[in-house]
Specification:
- The chain has five domains: 173 residues, P-loop containing nucleotide triphosphate hydrolases (Rossmann fold, 3-Layer(aba) Sandwich), CATH 3.40.50.300; 81 residues, Beta Barrel (Elongation Factor Tu (Ef-tu), domain 3), CATH 2.40.30.10; 106 residues, Elongation Factor Tu (Ef-tu), domain 3 (Beta Barrel), CATH 2.40.30; 127 residues, no CATH class; 124 residues, Arc Repressor Mutant, subunit A (Orthogonal Bundle), CATH 1.10.10.
- It is 36% helix and 27% strand.
- It has an eight-stranded antiparallel β-sheet, with no helix packed on it.
- The longest helix is centred in the last third of the chain and has 21 residues.
């Protein structure tokens, strides 16, 4: 069946009583006003859905929205899923208040395709018809409908219908199918229950695709279920896609727990939040100033909640202005970056009474943390997200670049992508070197590594300037100074050593070609300390003992020992004991000879072979364990990775 339908949604918009529902019936043969109150009052109150067969026999969906000002909330709920709008204006009334408001809402919702149906032409003379068309062209100038066809027709006589239908097909042909990428996510339009099958939830999926048997979670309720049956455009189906009118049977979910404004989602990557960031645009027609922390009715998806607009750049806004804001919601909603929103409020300066649309925008982040105004990092962070939002590869790259390294699984959740999509995006980013894998498997951005490398070079240079007598910084000292992830620091430092911008001198990092600047007296003492440790072997002296032997103050001896450790002349086994590297290498040879005779050697056997007491043997063996030369098992040691390499 998927070959006979397009996942494009048509939608009506326009002032009340301009003939939207009658036009949908003419297009589809379906009566979308199904509520008793709708029939009684003769106007659309809630959303109506119907399948429309195009000239090529393929099917698209149509959502009929209410035009009355009292039901704008329902209109916005329907508009969120529309790809092509049929903008309806009656020839007898012409442009009316909701004509303006619906056009503003459609623009804020990001629509790019549509046409105008000039209805009720049977009620007016040709001169009136021409005048309304001229008014419409002026109204639509500079909007997404600026070049849209204007099709005069009568829902009663059928005059002009063929021309309208041909124009509609051309507009639909020019509209690309809704992308099926990303996780499946649908805002709940309606819910009902059927004896036997149970709960049925309807809506227009905003992303992804779904098959029978797939698990879904209802948010923010947190209820889980599986799709037993589904219908698309009113017919049984095995698969549903973004942009189609779907009805999903989830028997495990209690229908009394479901309401419009909730979301069905296939992944745990989405969570309800009460704070989200976005870029808000104020409509050009808004009068007066919009002040910080204004309470608004936030319309997003099929949801409508009260919210406060916390401005992140300036403390007020005026007509036509944009700025980054934080929306602080009165109740949680499962929002994701890319969701479009509309804000309405009751401003005394507006021409119409009651609530009026003042602006809208797109969600960029869901921090769920109160943000403060005029923070450059926050503004640049949100601006980067805004610029990358519609490019999956660029968005994926930005998610990697924003923070700490991520596993592929975590990145998939942040990008709201399916595993196959995530793998394809990562292949591209790895191929051009923008994303790199760390030794532990996590992913980071090459720019993060480069920035960390710059910080490392700066930290080493600063250290050399302040400590000319030191050989350099240890790994721990360096990374503590630079900050950030240790694996990223390791990769950045390795790249600097490879590029010969840094050197690894013993246990420390130093600028290429650097050598510690010691006075003659200090150098002589360092040489004497080194010789004393080398002659002592494994039974190493303490700095206090050397101070007595050399007639020096302990502080100078300790300084000399620290320098020799940095230069890897001495090796620290623990807090108390240091030995000369030559003694360490000799001890390793003893261990290798023992392992050649037997695969497991006890501590006492090592002690006896080394000819030292436990005081020196145990710290030495612990050091060999830490450096993977040996592996401890109880009181015995077996060859570690490093020992096995030498034994081959």
């Amino acid at each position: 069946m998927s070959t006979t339908r397009r996942n494009i949604m048509l939608g009506t918009a326009g002032h009340v009583d301009h003939g939207k529902t009658a036009l949908v019936k003419l297009l589809t043969g379906c009566e979308t006003d199904t509520l008793a109150e709708e029939k009684q009052r003769g106007l659309t109150i809630d959303l109506g859905f119907a399948p429309c067969r195009l000239a090529d026999k393929r099917i698209v969906g149509v959502v009929d929205v209410p035009g009355h000002v009292d039901f704008i909330r329902n209109m916005v709920a329907g508009a969120h899923g529309v790809d092509v709008v049929i903008f309806v204006v009656a020839a007898d009334d012409g442009i009316m208040p909701q004509t303006h408001e619906h056009l503003n809402i459609l623009t804020l919702m990001g629509l790019r395709h549509g046409l105008v149906a000039l209805t009720k032409i049977d009620l007016v003379e040709a001169e009136r018809r021409a005048g309304v068309i001229e008014d419409l062209r002026r109204l639509l100038t500079g909007t997404f409908l600026a070049n849209a066809p204007i099709c005069p027709l009568s829902n009663i006589t059928g005059e002009g219908y063929e021309g309208f239908f041909d124009a509609l097909n051309q507009v639909v042909d020019a509209c690309e199918d809704r992308p099926e990428s990303g996780i499946f996510r649908v805002w709940v339009e309606d819910v009902f229950t059927i004896r036997g099958p149970g709960t049925v939830i309807t809506g227009i999926p905003s992303s992804g695709r779904l098959r029978i048997g797939d698990p879904l979670t209802l948010l923010p309720a947190g209820l889980a279920g599986h799709v037993r049956r589904m219908q698309v455009y009113g017919e049984d189906a095995t698969e549903a896609r973004a942009g189609e009118c779907v009805a999903l049977n989830l028997p495990e979910v209690d229908h009394q727990e479901v309401r419009r404004g909730m979301v069905l989602c296939e992944s745990d990557a989405v969570a309800p939040v009460t704070m989200a960031e976005g870029e808000l645009r104020i409509l050009d027609a808004v009068k007066g100033k919009i002040e910080d922390f204004l309470e608004v009715h936030l319309h997003i998806g099929t949801a409508s909640v009260l919210a406060r607009v916390a401005m992140l750049e300036e403390i007020e806004m005026a007509a036509g202005q944009k700025q980054m804001v934080q929306l602080r919601l009165a109740e949680p909603l499962p929002l994701v970056p890319g969701d479009r929103f509309v804000v309405r409020t009751n401003l005394p300066a507006q021409d119409q009474t009651g609530l009026a649309t003042i602006g809208g925008g797109r969600i960029l982040a869901v921090s769920n943390v109160r943000l403060r105004r005029k923070k450059p990092w926050t503004i640049s962070f949100l601006a980067a997200r805004r610029d990358a939002l519609d490019d999956p590869e660029r968005w994926c790259e930005l998610m990697v670049r924003e923070g700490l390294p991520l596993t592929a699984s975590d990145l998939q959740k942040k990008c709201l992508r399916r595993p196959d999509e995530m793998a394809a995006l990562l292949d591209k980013l790895r191929a051009n070197g923008r994303v790199v894998a760390l030794p532990g498997g996590a992913l980071t951005h090459s720019a993060v590594v480069e920035a960390t490398a710059g910080k490392i070079v700066e930290a080493v240079q600063t250290f050399h300037t302040a400590n000319p007598q030191r050989a350099g910084l240890s790994r721990d000292e360096l990374f503590a100074t630079v900050g950030g992830n240790a694996e990223v620091c390791d990769l950045a430092a390795a790249s600097l050593v490879s590029a010969k911008r840094l050197e690894r001198q013993g246990t420390v990092f130093a600028r290429a070609g650097w050598s510690a600047r010691l006075s003659d007296r200090d150098q002589q003492l360092s040489d004497r300390v080194s010789a004393a440790f080398q002659s002592a072997g494994l039974v190493a002296p303490t700095p206090t003992e050397l101070a007595t032997t050399f007639g020096e103050v302990p502080a100078r001896i300790e300084k000399a020992v620290s320098l020799l450790i940095e230069q890897a002349v001495l090796v620290r086994l623990d807090e108390r004991i240091c030995i000369h590297r030559a003694a360490l290498e000799a001890a390793k040879q003893v261990a290798l000879r023992l392992f050649a005779q037997k695969r497991s050697v006890s501590t006492m056997e090592f002690r006896d072979a080394l000819g030292v007491s436990r005081k020196y043997a145990v710290p030495l063996l612990d050091y060999l364990d830490r450096t993977r030369f040996t592996v401890r098992s109880g009181h015995d040691r077996t060859p570690g990775v490093e020992a096995r390499k030498l034994m081959k």
